[in-house]
Structures are given as C-alpha cells and as structure tokens.
Amino acid sequence: MAFNDITLFSAMKTKFSWLTQRQDVLAQNIANADSPGYRARDLKALDFKKIVRSQEDHIKMAATNPSHIDGRGRTGDFAAGKVRSPYETAPAGNSVVLEEQMHKINENSATHRLISELYKKQLGLFRAVLGR
Questions:
Q1: What pLDDT digit, counting tens, does each position of 89-118 carry?
Q2: Are 101 and 30 within 8 A, CB to CB?
Q3: Cβ atoms of 78 and 72 closer than 8 Å
Q4: What is the pLDDT of residue 44?
Q5: Nearest one of 38, 45, 46, 28 to 101, comparing CA atoms
Q6: Contact between residue 36 and residue 25 where contact means Cβ atoms under 8 Å apart
Q7: CA distances to 52, 107, 111, 112, 113 from 117, in Å
Q8: Which of 33, 61, 90, 129 could form a disulfide with 94 if both were Cys (CB 3.0 to 4.6 A apart)?
Q9: Whole-model pTM above 0.70?
Q10: C-beta separation of 87 from 97 below 8 A
C-alpha cells in the first residue's frame, strides 16, 4: 500500500503542494513591490472541507469489537474567511503592501511546520504499529 492511497497522506501532499505554490506567488509579490501597476496576487484557499467530505467513507474507523468506539465524528464546518482587499494602493497603481505579504509568508511557514509535524507523527504511529 502506497502512502498516497491513505487519505490523510494524500491530503498532506496536496497541502504541501499548495503551500509551495503560494510561497512562490508571495515571493513574486515582494519582488515586484516597487513595480508600477503590479497587483498583489494570492492563491485561492484550498478547500479541505470538500476533500474530506469526498473521502468521508475512507476516514471512518472500523469497530471490530462491540466495546470499540465507532469513530463517527463530526468533520466540522469551518467558517469561510472573507477575502480582504489590500490596505492601500500606491499612486503608481502598485497594490503590494510588504507588511501584509510578510504576514502571509509567516502564516504559510507556520502551516508548513504544522503539516510537517503531523506527517512525522503519522509516520511515528506506523513505526509503533510495525514494532520499530
């Protein structure tokens, strides 16, 4: 069984890919902070609610004993965030605000660390089950 066949690992791989592409877009924004007419860009947020709901049958745990917990949990409905317009636009038409871009890069980095830790924990669980 490949790790990509496991829903959680597949979702983490997708998130890593999205984070990498977002980092490239944010770096381009910062590189063009003084370019006249340049408009700041960002990626559309990754919709994990849709991914989880499409894979919901694969996520449920199997209860092999009547005393086991069946694993039915609420996947949760998260409130959608409102996309904000830039704080300001320069007279030359540039909409890149460095503080805003740095905040987004920091957010991207923190999410990357979180997903990396989740990945390590999941691998640790596999090692524990295999007895290594």
A1: 777 778 888 889 999 999 999 999 999 999
A2: yes
A3: no
A4: 83
A5: 28
A6: no
A7: 20, 15, 10, 9, 6
A8: 90
A9: no
A10: yes
